[in-house]
Specification:
alpha/beta, Zincin-like, 2 domains, 5-stranded mixed sheet, 11% strand
């Protein structure tokens, strides 16, 4: 962030403390981000409470974002998140279709990224190094963020995902390689969204909260998953792929009141 003097704005709302760091060309975007942050809390807080503040660093273009995040060759990537920091390409430089980034696009991305940050914070051990925490599978990380942000409208439909899987029978979108993530991001995010949706439909939100709490207490992710959901992680993943995530559709067809 070397385009002028760094600027900062602080937002505190509903247990969320965020400092937005930007430069003068992104003053308008910083204001939009600050306004959106007041709407983020109700969606993200379903999983728990932030344990520390977050900084959002706004980079003026994709090149500077890539340099900061050390993620090169991902032209579609707009943000990268850690437990207490979000690296964000300025929305004014997104290649959006149609036209500039819409307010809803920015809001959804903030919910998505702050869900990542909260997930990491909820898994961090009370004592011991942060790096000792086991990383959840890609589908869990991205699915949790995508479902929380309500981004199904951005994902491949189930039929489109089925056709993609038929054309890529050896690919594993639930555990994507770096190259699959880079070149087939649409399928990876769609599979993640539908897998997490299936997890919620079959085990419920409390199971996810219990899972994260058990990881925080020192359990391996697969062990925590089994205790929290009553079945093995491998069994769940195989069933999700075998049924093409149809379980989520069946569960969603039910009704509840009021």
């Amino acid at each position: 962030m070397d385009q002028g003097k760094p600027l900062a704005a602080r937002v505190e709302t509903q247990g969320l403390l965020v400092e937005v760091l930007y430069t003068a060309p992104d003053t308008g975007e910083a204001q939009r981000i600050r306004a959106d942050l007041f709407q983020v809390g109700p969606q993200v807080s379903r999983w728990g409470t932030f344990r520390q503040g977050i900084s959002i660093r706004v980079y003026p273009d994709h090149d500077s974002f890539e340099e900061a995040s050390n993620r090169h060759g991902y032209p579609w990537l707009r943000a990268w998140t850690f437990a207490n920091e979000v690296l964000l390409q300025s929305p004014r430089t997104w290649n959006s279709d149609p036209g500039p980034a819409r307010d809803q696009d920015v809001l959804e991305l903030l919910v998505h990224e702050l869900t990542h940050a909260l997930m990491y914070q909820l898994m961090e051990p009370a004592e011991g190094p942060v790096w000792s925490v086991e990383e959840p599978p890609a589908w869990f990380r991205e699915g949790m963020a995508s479902v929380t942000a309500g981004q199904e409208h951005l994902r491949l439909t189930r039929d489109e995902l089925l056709r993609w899987r038929a054309a890529h029978p050896d690919a594993d979108p639930l555990h994507p390689s770096a190259e699959l993530y880079r070149s087939q991001g649409n399928a990876v995010y769609a599979a993640a969204h539908r897998a997490f949706d299936l997890l919620l439909a079959t085990s419920g939100e409390e199971a996810v909260r219990n899972l994260l709490r058990r990881v925080r207490e020192g359990a391996h992710f697969a062990d925590a998953f089994q205790v929290a959901t009553g079945r093995s992680l491998l069994e769940f993943e195989r069933e999700a792929v075998r049924t093409a995530f149809a379980g989520a559709a069946r569960a969603a067809a039910g009704s509840g009141g009021p």
